[in-house]
Write a structure and sequence with these properties.
Blueprint lengths: L1 H16 L1 H39 L3 E6 L2 H12 L4 H9 L11 H10 L3 E16 L2 E10 L1 H6 L4 E4 L4 H6 L3 E4 L1 H7 L9 E4 L2 E9 L6 H7 L7 E5 H8 L7 H7 L15 E6 L5 H15 L6 E4 L1 H44 L1 H9 L4 H37 L8 H27 L3 H6 L1
Parallel strand pairs: 3-8, 5-7
Antiparallel strand pairs: 1-9, 1-10, 2-3, 2-6, 2-9, 4-7, 5-8, 6-7
């Protein structure tokens, strides 16, 4: 043990005597370890972001959203290009647009009857409105939902309770508010049982949602609203007390005849429907079946969009993993180049220190002592580069997260992995120079 410690101290002394050369030798390890930690942090951040998004949207969900007339017109132009000349001329002579009842509550009942494996269905009606109480006025949204909405989106009731069956059946004037609504209008009082005016309707508050933090990136990628700033009413109340776009009126008659020129008109009774499937393996098959059923009910007019967020996120995760592998390969090449640099410098050091090796051998040092000394030098240089690389990697991850708005997570195992790789590089690439130094003939070394 004393000989081992002595050889280790000799190695550190030699590194300290050649600070600049040792630092330049360690630069390859510095950049390699820094790149590894930064890339692992980016990959871990991306995985965590995807997992967080999965929690927001839930699992096994199919999202159906309504399309406006302007979007349908663009789809019709694309479809007309594939038809025959006679069909095109007939359509040019007839300027009437195809009719569809839009996304309605009847579609929900048809889905429940015809599509097997459906666990939950959550309809949504989003209505821009004004919120008034005690002289305070604010723009907001009234969202018509059922209790399935809170279960699908994993929203918990912080105060009060969710809707009763009688609320949903009779369309009563009740609501559940988000946390921001409570903070803005009921900052110093309990809102349960109080009334708030939403548009032209006075609503009694029966519950308050627990706050839910959703990043801006998640809201943009997944189409998720800020749940904390909405007022939720029973869907029957939204149709009865606010607005039912499916109610037959003169505008509906003109649209049925294809003579309504308002391309931005939203004629859908429902804005969004989320369907949860029991079996994850049948998610895509169920989505195809839902699309065919709705197309038939809407008279072959595709005025809706169907997305499977889970499949999109899985594809995004696979792409991210491929990208991380490429970055890891680049970082591994940097480490390899750093190891080759260490071997090169140590081989040159052996040639410079032949006389030192001869003196040590003549004073009783064994080949094992010489091997240990040179191995300790290479490992110490690698570890020194590893420490600096870890610091640069952590700083680089934070800079990337702040400047590029990319989530990064620096884990303990990535730091330990970097140290392990740095030590292994010092050991592997230091063996050949150490053995060459130990095999020097003492007499020839003294003559050098």
């Amino acid at each position: 043990m004393q000989r081992l410690i002595f050889n280790f101290l000799l190695a550190i002394e030699q590194v300290a005597l050649n600070k600049l050369r040792s630092f330049l030798t360690a630069l390859g390890i510095v950049f390699g370890v820094g790149a590894v930690i930064s890339m692992l942090a980016i990959g871990a951040g991306a995985r965590q972001s995807i997992l967080d998004q999965m929690k927001l949207i839930g699992t096994n969900n199919i999202v159906i959203t309504s399309s406006t007339s302007a979007e349908l017109a663009a789809q019709g132009e694309e479809g007309e290009s594939g038809g025959s000349d006679s069909e095109a001329s007939a359509e040019q002579n007839d300027d009437r647009k195809p009719y569809s009842p839009g996304l309605t509550v009847d579609d929900l009942r048809a889905l429940e009857r015809s599509v097997p494996g459906i666990e939950l269905i959550s309809p949504e009606i989003v209505l821009p409105t004004t919120i008034i109480r005690d002289g305070k006025l604010s723009k907001g949204r009234a969202v018509g939902v059922t209790n399935a909405f809170f279960e699908l989106n994993q929203l918990d009731i912080g105060l009060g309770q969710d809707f009763h069956d009688i609320h949903l059946e009779r369309g009563m004037a009740v609501c559940i508010i988000g946390k921001e609504i409570q903070t803005r209008f009921f900052s110093n009082e309990d809102p349960i049982g109080k009334r708030i005016k939403c548009g032209n309707n006075w609503l009694t508050i029966v519950g308050v949602l627990q706050p839910r933090s959703v990043s801006r990136q998640s809201r943009e990628n997944l189409g998720i609203r800020n749940y904390n700033s909405d007022i939720y009413v029973p869907i029957s109340s939204a149709l009865l007390r606010f607005k039912d776009r499916a109610t037959f009126a003169q505008d509906n008659l003109r649209r049925r005849r294809g003579r309504n020129n308002d391309d931005d008109e939203n004629y859908h009774q429902l804005d969004r429907v989320v369907v949860r499937v029991q079996d994850a393996d049948k998610l895509q098959v169920t989505a195809d079946l839902v699309a065919r059923l709705l197309k038939r009910r809407h008279y072959s007019l595709i005025d809706f969009q169907i997305q499977v967020p889970e499949l999109l996120l899985e594809q995004q995760q696979k792409t991210q993993e491929t990208f991380n592998l490429v970055l890891a390969a680049i970082a591994a090449i940097s480490l390899l180049v750093g190891g080759i640099g260490i071997m090169n410098i140590m081989l040159a050091s052996v040639l410079e220190r032949i006389k030192e090796v001869g003196i040590r051998r003549s004073l009783g040092a064994t080949e094992r002592d010489i091997v240990q000394q040179f191995l300790f030098e290479s490992i110490f240089i690698s570890l020194l580069g590893g420490i600096i690389g870890v610091v640069l990697g952590v700083l680089g991850a934070r800079i990337i997260a702040s400047s590029a708005d990319i989530p990064t997570v620096v884990s303990v195992w990535s730091v330990l992995l970097s140290f392990g790789v740095a030590s292994a590089i010092g050991l592997v690439f230091g063996i050949v120079p150490a053995q060459r130094a130990a095999r020097q003939d003492p007499i020839s070394a003294l003559r050098n």
